[in-house]
Write a sequence for this structure.
């Protein structure tokens, strides 16, 4: 579909107009802008969206600047026209260039994230609304049925509206509305579709803040008022009111006519967050996440560009929206690994949010109860400021944390809850309070094996076991989505009914609890049972209404939620995240379990947390039990400092993949032979990736380790330019990797 376009802006023609050329960046995986000729009468500026020919088609791009001159004059094609849309603001263009330079992605690929809804560049699709026509009803000789009368009555004291809405309000079918229009009593008008958000009012009163909240809010307000780049860590225990405090900063930005972006790691957080936003600002903010419909995306993208959307709350991709008046960015739960984008352009949204703020010259607030070591280190070196909220709001106490040594207090065979945790559950139910069992494992069992021959059921496309989902009666691969019915006979030895489920998932826990506490109303919460924000919201309401006694959940439930009657949290396998060679395993486990523990006792009733572990002496368990975060993080910092690991050194991973294992290995070895030899740069590998097979692709890895002083991107660029990648093999660059599989 060729884009409709506005006529070019009239303007004074520069003298060299006839030959003018401009660089136009296209949202395609191209290194840089392409040159196009600009018609003499066109007045195009950097940032303008333009239609340009590309081969036989026409496509949309953005004027990026002067042409490079590398296309011969005779071959130069003309820009077809400018689109009637606000230009892409200069800070957004600089941000795109910066992200491409840092991640080694092509600029066009980054632009594509900023142009994720191309149809938003077209004039908004109007909706048809019905209003009362001028015609005199008697003159029309209209038969006035009761339904028709109701429609006319609705319109008598209201604006025109779409047929469906009108029919709903009048309590009749759409046919009645259409009939009135056909008879001439109603006329149709084109209207802009209604936006899925409303305008926040920063002048509404918020809750009265405690002295420490007030002090933090005042500092943030000052930073927003200064309209200058700054990074502030809002560091407060779970339930300390960080959200209320950064709402004050948002109010300041809004009052100054600026837009606000709030990034959240998981949109399941959304329901309660939206309620609180509504209470504070009397409005619904614009949302940006993967569950939006195409139409909602189109409206929202356009409204952000035109400035009608004042506050956007979104997942990491919201960072690439075309804000023209951005005045504040908040990154809530800044330590959350979900901020790392692992596909396409690989970037860390928290780090890029800081860059976006720096380029725009505005403050950014990073909020967390368990800040990342990266952020802690930036605070320690004075690059970031810290604001501290030391207590839970309203005198709620942090929960007591008990470590259960599973070697001594073991559950019975084929059971997963130790007697201590079992007893705590019984007490909690007896008192009519709520509990949560946390296990970061979807499904029934993570491994199924044949008792006769020991064969393990594995994914044909990945180096991974198939996970049994008993509720759905399926075996699934959590990496590629492969899904199959459970087999009757072992594919290896042919034994019948020989399969045994090994280890627990949330479904299996539910089975154990149902057997032991048949009266308790429990719910399994994972991405299998809670699909989308509406389901999350419904669950939150059931919890608050105390229709649920026990949540059995994965990390989906660990974050953000505030349940006043939840007083017990049991972490079923506290060791789960500690295995493997991930350099952040301890830090992440500490953060995740602190979050999960933080769900307990958030109101006037004190909470308790039980951690089931086979390594009670582990530093993570000790830190959780003592609550001494500073000591734990200092020890982490020392480890990473000693080994030159981030944030004290820099890392980049190269992932070599393809269908043909031999070719992939050859390509990885070729890269290894040309590995950079600069001072301060070490290359580890090539070696087969732990996930050797993923979605049918063979994988090898190399890891580049460099000092902070080295120019990692320049080293990588030189290296990759020197080695030809054979056909059928892909080399993915992951700067600052968080995943090592
Ligand atoms: P955090 O984000 O630090 O975990 P929240 O902002 O979610 O903390 O606050 C925890 C709970 O306390 C929320 O229900 C919030 O509405 C409430 N709260 C925090 N500060 C205040 C305040 N000053 N007045 C009233 N309620 C508050
Ligand atoms: Zn798979």
């Amino acid at each position: 579909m060729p884009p409709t376009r506005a006529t070019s802006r009239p303007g004074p023609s520069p003298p060299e107009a006839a030959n003018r050329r401009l660089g136009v960046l296209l949202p395609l995986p191209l290194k840089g802008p392409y040159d196009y000729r600009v018609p003499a009468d066109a007045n195009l500026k950097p940032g303008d969206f333009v239609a340009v020919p590309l081969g036989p088609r026409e496509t949309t791009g953005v004027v990026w600047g002067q042409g490079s001159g590398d296309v011969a004059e005779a071959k130069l094609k003309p820009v077809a026209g400018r689109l009637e849309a606000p230009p892409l603001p200069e800070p957004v263009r600089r941000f795109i260039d910066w992200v491409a330079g840092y991640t080694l992605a092509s600029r066009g690929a980054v632009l594509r994230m900023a142009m994720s809804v191309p149809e938003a560049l077209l004039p908004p699709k109007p909706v048809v609304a019905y209003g009362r026509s001028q015609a005199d009803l008697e003159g029309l000789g209209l038969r006035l049925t009761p339904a028709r009368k109701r429609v006319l009555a609705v319109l008598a004291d209201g604006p025109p509206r779409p047929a469906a809405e009108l029919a709903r309000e009048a309590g009749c079918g759409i046919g009645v509305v259409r009939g009135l229009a056909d008879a001439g009593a109603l006329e149709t008008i084109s209207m802009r579709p209604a936006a899925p958000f409303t305008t926040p009012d920063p002048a509404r009163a918020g809750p009265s803040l405690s002295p420490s909240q007030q002090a933090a809010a005042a500092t943030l307000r000052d930073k927003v008022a200064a309209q200058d780049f700054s990074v502030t860590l809002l560091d407060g225990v779970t339930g300390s009111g960080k959200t209320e405090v950064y709402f004050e900063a948002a109010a300041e930005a809004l009052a100054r006519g600026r837009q606000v972006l709030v990034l959240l790691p998981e949109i399941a957080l959304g329901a309660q967050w939206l309620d609180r936003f509504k209470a504070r600002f009397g409005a619904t903010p614009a949302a940006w996440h993967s569950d939006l419909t195409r139409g909602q995306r189109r409206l929202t993208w356009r409204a952000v560009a035109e400035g009608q959307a004042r506050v956007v709350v979104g997942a990491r991709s919201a960072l690439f929206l075309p804000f023209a008046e951005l005045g504040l960015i908040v990154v809530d739960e800044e330590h959350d690994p979900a901020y790392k984008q692992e596909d396409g352009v690989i970037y860390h949204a928290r780090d890029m949010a800081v860059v976006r703020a720096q380029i725009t010259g505005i403050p950014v607030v990073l909020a967390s109860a368990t800040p990342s070591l990266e952020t802690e280190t930036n605070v320690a070196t004075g690059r970031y400021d810290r604001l501290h909220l030391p207590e839970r709001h309203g005198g709620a106490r942090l929960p007591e944390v008990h470590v259960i040594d599973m070697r001594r207090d073991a559950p019975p065979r084929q059971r997963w809850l130790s007697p201590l945790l079992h007893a705590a559950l019984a007490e909690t139910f007896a008192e009519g309070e709520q509990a949560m069992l946390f296990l970061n494992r979807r499904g029934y069992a993570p491994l199924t094996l044949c008792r006769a021959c020991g064969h393990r059921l594995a994914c044909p496309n990945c180096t991974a076991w198939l996970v049994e989902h008993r509720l759905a009666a399926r075996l699934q691969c959590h990496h590629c989505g492969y899904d199959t019915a459970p087999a009757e006979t072992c594919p290896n030895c042919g034994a019948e009914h020989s399969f045994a489920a090994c280890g627990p998932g949330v479904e299996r826990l539910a089975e154990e609890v149902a057997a032991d506490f048949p009266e308790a109303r429990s719910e399994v919460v994972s991405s299998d049972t809670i699909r989308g924000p509406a389901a999350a919201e419904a669950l939150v309401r059931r919890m608050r209404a105390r229709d649920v006694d026990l949540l059995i959940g994965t990390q989906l439930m660990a974050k953000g939620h505030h349940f006043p009657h939840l007083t017990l949290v049991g972490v079923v396998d506290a060791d789960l995240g500690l295995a493997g060679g991930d350099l952040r395993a301890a830090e992440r486990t500490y953060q995740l379990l602190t979050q999960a523990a933080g769900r307990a006792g958030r109101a006037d009733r004190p909470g308790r947390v039980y951690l089931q572990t086979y390594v009670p002496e582990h530093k993570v368990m000790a830190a959780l039990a003592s609550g001494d975060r500073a000591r734990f993080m200092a020890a982490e910092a020392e480890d990473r400092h000693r080994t030159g690991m981030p944030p004290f050194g820099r890392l980049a991973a190269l992932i070599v993949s393809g269908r043909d294992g031999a070719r992939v290995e050859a390509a990885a070895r070729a890269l290894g032979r040309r590995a950079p030899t600069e001072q301060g740069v070490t290359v580890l590998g090539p070696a087969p990736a732990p996930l050797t097979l993923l979605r049918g692709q063979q994988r090898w890895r190399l890891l580049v380790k460099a000092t902070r002083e080295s120019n990692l991107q320049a080293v990588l660029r030189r290296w990759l330019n020197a080695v030809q990648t054979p056909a059928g093999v892909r080399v993915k660059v992951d700067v600052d990797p968080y995943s090592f599989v």
